[in-house]
Amino acid sequence: MTFLTYVISGISLGSVYAIIALGYTMVYGIAKMLNFAHGDVIMVGAYVCFFATSRFGLNPVIGVLLAMFVCTILGMVIERLAYKPLRQAPSLAVLITAIGISYFLQNAAQLLWTSNPKTYTSVVGNGALQLAGGQLPISYVTIVTIVACVAIMVGLTTFTSKTKMGKAMRACSEDKGAAQLMGINVNTTISVTFAIGSALAAIAGVLLCSAYPILTPTTGSMPGIKAFTAAVFGGIGSVPGAFLGGILLGIIEIFAKAYISTQLSDAIVFAVLIVVLLVKPTGLLGKPVSEKV
Amino acid sequence: MKKLFAMLLVVAMVLSLAACGSSNSASTTGGDTAATNNDASTTTPADSATTDSGAAIKLGGTGPLTGGAAIYGMAAKHGAEIAVDEINALGGIQFELKYEDDAHDAEKAVNAYNTLKDWGMQISLGSVTSTPAAATSAKNFEDRIFALTPSASSTAVIEGKDNVYQMCFTDPNQGSASAQYIFEQKLATKVAIIWKNDDVYSKGIHDTFISKAGELGLEVVSDTTFTSDSQTDFSVQLTEAQKDGADLVFLPIYYDAASLILTQASTKGYAPKFFGVDGMDGILTVEGFDASLAEGVMLLTPFSADATDDLTVNFVGKYNDAYGETPNQFAADAYDCIYAIYNACTAAGVTSAMSAEVTNDLMIAQFTSMTFDGLTGDGVTWDASGAVSKSPKGMIIENGAYVGMD
Question: Quick count: other Cβ atoms within 10 Å of Cβ B244?
């Protein structure tokens, strides 16, 4: 029974990593850049929803929509100001810029909202689904998070395979220059990618803080890095891979804590990641990369 | 492929920084951008706190005013400012206070300390948090500038330095006092500890608690940790404590993580007694926190914002008016620091014309002999090592407020 409890804890934690990883992997898959500011966009989304629901007493659904709206705008502004001028620059420069944006957002949040922690009121409610006569509680947040993950996965897959914009995105992902020659507006496409990625970040932020209800300006950074790890684990660029990677990472982390050592849990998680990448360098569900000659 | 490899290398570097830098990484980096333009902001309060800067004794301190630990640095700075304003309004000895940002980073703290030294700091308030304080207190000792830190509780801060004093308890003191208290009051037979592995404060208390508990025959059934990187999910730690039948969980940690532990324990339906130390103070002030979760939580703390004595009421009122929040123990410790320095300066006749070195010797003589009554304790004394002696008060949270247990 304890084992099952740990499995469920792992899935709860993993579902949060997964929903963050979806945004990471989507932006990487299309724009081919690691948006390290993703974790901090999550934090901004969580703050927006917090103020909407706790300070102004709005309905949680409106809070989430507002957070998505603000994050979408924020994501597009970041893209326009920080990443667009570097479109032709080496990817390392863009990566460093992303890290800079990440710190900028953290410090801006601290100036605006101070570093005092805030306790989040869950948008889902604090209850839990009781299985096995109350011995195996699964919190509603976890269920909602998993449902949201699946919905987002299906939505993203349909969007990229069925719509015109989705096709443009896949074209940009394969070859920006060629896409432009085919009459695709690369800048708009990448802007839209960031807009969607940031809206997903807002949802992830709200669910992250509903599951682990403490909100500070650095809330997004560590889960962001863990989620990035999850995305790499599952195969970065692959949407189902991000989900699988997130859930597995959560379970491994909880098992490492429970059965090996609470002190070494992170070391074990990253050791597993290294082993997976050694055996399968593109991650669990990653497409094999063919070397261009 | 090369690019991807380069990116992976960078990522690996970032991850390793994040993994081993622990609590420092967030706050250090958090300060990077803000630390540079901080001079302007730190001087403003000092100006307002000064009536006549020509004849004022210059007090300087460093603390994390930006970054993840900023809540502690800002609280200390605000508490000290209130005390300085009060003292300057009295018209006797005048103080000029300047706080510099150290972003909870030892290297930045030494730079901040040097800035203060160049400014002409006569008496130092050390650093607010332990890691930077260990670095700046060494400079204090070297430069013969007297320091009284409000809240850096690690023994490394005062060890071997005759002119560095603490206003807060040392960590070992808190650990053994907690074990003693739990044992004497028969609060529990089986104790679980959840502590923060990458924090000297938490580790210090944990280690002495364990050894004291062993001495007293208090059974510690579960001993689990977390780090600032895994400070979200406590299900494993709580399940272990519950499985081993602990009826009291000791939390030598700060209140942000503690509030998550309380929430998750309640979701699990696990309701042991929770016992905290001074870092637990502040849990009731977290915006949006459901105070009913903290019902029955016990803690040893030198300061309670809900106490009804005149000194506390006055301080809490002023703090609320000026900064719009309830002060925590960091603010109270800093407030007491200023008054302790004020008393010592008055008794020894320190003037702003004296050099830091002359002041230093006068202050040491005062601090080893004087008794101080303040917000955080009555009859407070210091021994020559710099450690404070004051009795922690046992508090329990009832109906959303602290109530004394004795």
Answer: 15
**Which residue range(s) make up the domain with B204?**
172-301
Same structural domain, B183 and B278: yes
- Which amino acid appears at position B226 of this protein? F
Do the domain assignments include residue B223?
A: yes
In a domain, B315, yes or no: yes
Query: What is d(CA B406, CA B404) in angstroms, rounded to the nearest whole number?
Result: 6
Residues of A in contact with B6 (CB under 8 A): 91-92
Q: Which residue of B has its CA nearest to A34?
A: B7
Which of A2, A95, A118 is opposite residue B7, by nearest beta carbon?
A95
Q: Which residues fall within 8 angstroms of residue A233, CB to CB, at 6 or more apart? A: A245, A248, A249, A273, A276, A283, A284
CA distance B12 to B5: 10
Could you read off the pLDDT of A76-125 as tens digits, one per residue? 999 999 988 988 888 889 889 999 999 999 989 988 887 778 888 777 77
Helices B2-35 and A91-113: crossing angle in degrees, nearest 10, is 30
Contacts of A1 in chain B (CB under 8 A): none
Backbone angles phi, psi at B193, to 5 degrees: -120, 135
Considering the domain architecture, whether residues B250 and B329 belong to the same structural domain is answered as: no
A222 closest CB neighbour out of B3, B18, B237: B18
Q: Which of A120, A139, A218 sits opposite B288 (nearest CB)?
A: A120
Domain co-membership, B272 together with B187: yes
CATH number, domain with residue B352: 3.40.50.2300
Contact A224, A27 (CB under 8 A): no
- Same domain for B214 and B116: no
Answer whether residue B136 is part of any domain. yes
- Which of B301, B326, B348 terminates a domain? The answer is B301
Write out residues 93-122 of A within 8 Å (CB-CB) of B. Answer: 95, 99, 103-104, 106-107, 110-111, 114-121
Tens digits of per-residue pLDDT, B138-149? 999 999 999 999
Q: Is the same domain home to B245 and B261?
A: yes
Looking at the fold, whether B190 and B220 belong to one and the same domain comes out as: yes
Q: Residues of B with CB below 8 A from A228's CB?
A: 11
Domain boundary among B283, B301, B319: B301
Closest Cα partner for B104 from B27, B35, B162, B39?
B27
Residue B296 has pLDDT above 50, yes or no: yes
**Residue A225 and residue B233: Cβ atoms within 8 Å?**
no
Which residues in chain A are contacts of B257 at CB distance < 8 A?
Answer: 214
List the single residue in B with minimal CA-CA distance to A223. Answer: B229
A–B CB contacts, 8 A cutoff, strictly below = 154
Give the separation between CA B233 and CA A12, rounded to whole angstroms: 9
pLDDT at position B8: 62
Residues B227 and B242 in one domain: yes
Count up the domains in chain B and report the number: 2
Stretch A210-230: mean pLDDT: 87
Regarding whether B116 and B101 lie in a shared domain, the answer is: yes
- Of B201, B218, B37, B235, the C-alpha closest to B132 is B201
ipTM: 0.80
**Hey, which residues 8-47 in chain A have their CB within 8 Å of chain B?**
9, 12-13, 16, 34, 36
Q: Please state the domain extents for chain A.
A: 16-221
Which of A213, A254, A262 minimises the CB distance to B224?
A: A262
pLDDT in tens, B61-73: 999 887 767 788 9
* Residue A2 with chain B: CB contacts under 8 Å: 239, 243
Q: What does the pLDDT average to over B321-330?
A: 86
B197 to chain A, closest Cα gap in Å: 7
Query: Is B395 part of a structural domain of the chain?
Result: no
Residue A265 in contact with partner chain B when CB distance is under 8 A: yes
SS3 A287: coil
